[in-house]
Amino acid sequence: MHILSTIIEALPYILEGTLVTIVLVAGALSLGFCLGVPMAVAQVYAPRPAAMLVGFYVWFFRGVPVLLLLFLFYYGLFGLIGLDVGTIGASCIVLGMTSAAYQSQIFRGSILSLSAGQLKAGKALGMTNGQTIIHVILPQALRLSIPGWSNEYSILLKDSAMCFALGTPEIMARTHFVASRTYEHLPLYITAGLIYFAITMAGVTMLRRLEQKARIPGYNSAGM
Amino acid sequence: MNAPQNDTPILRAEHFSKYLTGRKILDDCSISMRPGDVKVLIGPSGAGKSTFLQCINCLLEPDEGEIWLGERRVDFKNTRELYDLRQHVGMIFQDFKLFDHLSAENNVALALRKVRGLSKAEALKRAHEELARVGLEDKAKLYPAQLSGGQKQRVAIARALAMDPTILLLDEPTSALDPELVGEVLTVIRDLAARGMPMIMVTHQMEFARAVATEILFMEAGHVIEQGSPEELLAPGAQTRTQDFCTRLYELCGETPVEEG
Amino acid sequence: MLDFLDINFLTGRVMPYLDRGLVMSLQLIIPAALIGGFIGVVMGVMRVFGTPWMRRGTDAVVAVIRGVPLTVQLMVLYFGLPSVPGLKIYLSPYAAALIGFIVCTASYQSEYVRGALLSIRQGQIRAAQALGMTRWQTILSVVVPQAVRRALPGCGNEIIYLVKYSSLAYIVTCIELTGEAKVLVSRTFRPTEVYLVAACYYLVMVSAATYLLAKLEKKLAIPGFGTQK
Q1: Which of B119-123, C82-86, C224-228 has the lowest mean pLDDT?
Q2: Where are the alpha helices (DSSP H) in B74-205?
Q3: Among C12, C27, C31, C66, which Cα is nearest to C190's?
Q4: Where exactly are the structural domains of chain B?
Q5: Distance from the C143 Cα atom to the nearest Cα atom in chain A, whole angstroms
C-alpha cells in the first residue's frame, strides 16, 4: 500500500512532466516538419550544391547520437552564439533538428515514389516548377508520408526521454527525482513506462485516423 | 491380370475426397495413368480441378482415397513415402513458382542436389541439359525477374523434368501468360506428349486439349461427370456436357484456338 | 572559444580520453549486436513458426520493449532492480547497459526477421515440396536464403541505431564515449571542441557500418529480388 500511495502522491508531479514531454514532441515534430519539407524538396529538385548541403546535414544528424547532440548544442554551440532558450527550448530545438534529418528522408522517399509524369503534367498546364511542387507534388507526397511520420513520432517520443540528461523537467527527470527521494525506483519507472506506452499508442492511433481521413479513393503507394 | 506389363497403370488415384472448411470440394474422384496417357481436366472454375491435381502429389492431403504408384500403395502419412511420391510426380504451377533467389540453372539444380544428392557440378550439368531441352540454354544464368513469363514456365518445366518424374501434373500452365507467350510453352508440352511423358493437365486451351489428350475428364462441383476420348466427347453433334461447356467457353470468353508450331 | 588549431589540446588531451571511451563503446556495441542479433532471430522465428502461446508471449514482450524508451528500460535495470525487496539484484553499470541493449536490439531485430519470414510467399514453399524436398531442406535452401536478404536492410539499420543508442550507457554511469566526453568537459570547460570531436568518432563508426552493410547487401543482391515487396 505504501508503494501505491507513493505513486499516487507523485502522479500529479509526473503528469506535469508528461505535459512537458508532449510539448517537446509536438514542438520537435513541427520544427522537423518545417525544416524537413524544404530540405526534401531541395534534395530532389535543387541544384547539386544545395542538395549536397542537405545531404551533409542529414548525414551529420543521423550519424551522431541524440544525447551527444543535446550536450553539444546545449553546453557548447548555443552558448557560443549567445542563444539562451532554457532546457525545454534547447531540447525542443535539438530534437527538432534531428527529426528534420529523418523527416526529410521520409518526404524525399515519397517524392521519389511519385511518377515523373506528375511534374510533366503540371508543366504542360503552364504551371511553374514551384507551383507544381506545391500544388501537385507535395499534396501527394505528404499523404504517402503519414505512415513514416507516425513511426517518426513514436521514435521522437522515446528519444525525448534522453532530455532528462540536460535536466529538462519532463517525465523521466521528474520520475528520477521522486525515485531518488522515495527509493521506490521500480514502481515509479514502471509508471513512467506506462505513461510513455499510453502516449505512443494514443498518437499512433490518431495518425492512423488522419491517414484514413486523408485517403483518396483508389490512391495508395501500392497502386502506383 | 492378362494385361501386358506395360499396360499396368503407373499411377492410380482412387476415390479421392477432400473437405475444405466443412465443404466437400472433391467427391470420390479417381484417375488412372498408363504409359503415354495425356489426360486433361476441364470444367468451370470451382469444380475442384486444381484440388484434385494437388491431391495427386499430396500438396493437399486427400481426406479419403488411395494413391498407387505402380503396384505399391503410397502411405502418405509416412513422410519418407510422401517425399518419394513427390519425386515421382512432377508439378507445373499456373504461377511458375520459381525460386526467386536462384538463377534459372540453380532453380533446376537445387532439388537435384538436395533431394537426389548430386554434386554441384553434376547437378548443373544436368540442369543445362534440361534447359537446352526447353530451348533456354542461353538463359541459364538469369534470375526469374529477368525472364519473361513464357521463359519462366519453361524453366519450371525443366526443373520438374530434371527429377525424372514418371508423370507430370500441369495446373493451368499457360493461363498466367500473355497471349503471345502461350505458344512457346504449349510447344514444349506437346513435345513432351509426343515423347510419351504421361501427363495430367488442367487447362482451358480446348484446341490444344483436343489435339494432345488421350482422355478428357469433365469436372463439376467436385465430381468427374464425363470421361472419354476427345473424339467421343467433342464429336460434332455429341450431346455432352463437355461440348456444351466448350461452346460456352468460346462464346463467353471469346477464346480462340491458339495456333502453335 | 573555438580553437580548433590547438592541435596539442585535441591530440594530447581529448583523443586519449575519447579513445578510452571508444573502447568501452565497442565493448558494448559488439556483444550487444551479436547476442541481440542472435536472440532477435530466435524470437522472430518463434513469432512466425511458434505455438500460439509462444507467439503471443513474444509479441507482447516486443510490444512493451518497443513502446517504452530505452532510457526507462536502463533505469529499471540499474536503479529499479536493486530497489525490489527480497530480490536485491545489483547490476554493474556495464552489465545494466549491456543487458538493456541486448533486450532492446533483440526486440527490434525480431521485428525485421518476422517481417522477412512473413514476406516469403507460400508458393515458394509449395514449389520445394512439389520437388520432394523435406521440411528442413525447404527451410534451409529456400526460406532462409530469401529471408536473410529481405531482413538485411532493416537489421543493418538496427545495428546503426545500436551504435548511436550505446551513448545511453552514460545514463547508468557506464562511462563510454559520450561519458568520457562529458567528464572531460567538466575538467576542461571546452564543451564545443570536445563534443564535436566525440561526434566525429560516432560519425566514423556509423559511416563505416553503413558502408560495410551496403557492401554486404550488394554482394548478396539478386536481380529483381527484394525490389518488389
Answers
A1: C224-228
A2: 79-88, 104-114, 120-133, 149-161, 179-194
A3: C12
A4: 9-97+168-253
A5: 24
Chain C positions in Cβ-Cβ contact with residue A59 (cut-off 8 Å): 203, 207
3-state secondary structure of C120: coil
pLDDT digits (tens, 9 = 90+) for C173-212: 999 999 999 999 999 888 998 999 999 999 999 999 999 9
CB contact under 8 A, C123 and B100: no
Q: What strands, in cross-sheet order, belong to the sheet with B64-69?
A: B23-33, B11-20, B64-69, B72-74
Contacts of A202 (CB under 8 A, 6+ apart): none
Give B225's DSSP letter. Answer: E
Choosing among C121, C131, C228, C229, which should be mutated to test the B contact, i.e. which has the most B CBs within 10 A?
Answer: C131
The class (CATH top level) of C27-176 is mainly alpha
Judged by a CB distance cut-off of 8 A, whether residue A149 touches chain C is no
* pLDDT value of residue B190: 93
Interface pTM, i.e. ipTM = 0.88
Q: What CATH number has the domain spanning B9-97+168-253?
A: 3.40.50.300
DSSP-assigned states of every residue in B70-105? TTEEE-TTSHHHHHHHHHHEEEE-TT----TTS-HH
H-run or E-run covering B39: strand B38-42
Where are chain A's structural domains? 20-170
Closest CA to B216 of B34, B28, B37: B37
Distance from C-alpha of A178 to C-alpha of A172, rounded to nearest angstrom: 10
- CATH classification code of A20-170: 1.10.3720.10
Domain ranges of chain C: 27-176
